Amino acid sequence: MTGEPEVINPERRGYHERGWWRNETFLDDLDRWAREAPDRLAVVGHTWETARGPDRLFTYAELKDAVDRCAAGLAELGVRRGDRVAMQLVNQWQATVLALGCGRLGAVVVPYFIATGDADTEVILRRSGARVAVTIDGVRGLEPAAAIARMRDRLPDLRHLVVVGEKILDGAMRFEEALLAPSTPLADLDLEPPGPDDLFQIMYTSGTTGQPKGVRHSFNTLYAMARGYVDPLGLTGEDVLTTPCIVGGQGGWLYGMLAPLLAGATAVWSDAFGAADLLDLAQEYGLTTAYITPSTLDDFADEQDARPRELKLRHLVAGSIPIPPAMPGRLHDVFGISLLPLWGMTENGGVTIGRPGDPADIAVRSDGRPVDWMELRLVGDDGAPVPDGEPGRLEVRGANMCLGYQDDEALFAESLHDGWFVTGDLARPDGLGGIKIVGRVKDMVNRNGVHVPGVVVEGVLREHPNVAEVAVVGEPDPVLGERVVAVVVPRGEPPTLDALRDAASAAGLTLGYAPDRLELVSELPKTPTGKVRKRDIEEELARRAAAHPTP
Question: Which CATH code fits 10-429?
Answer without folding.
Answer: 3.40.50.12780
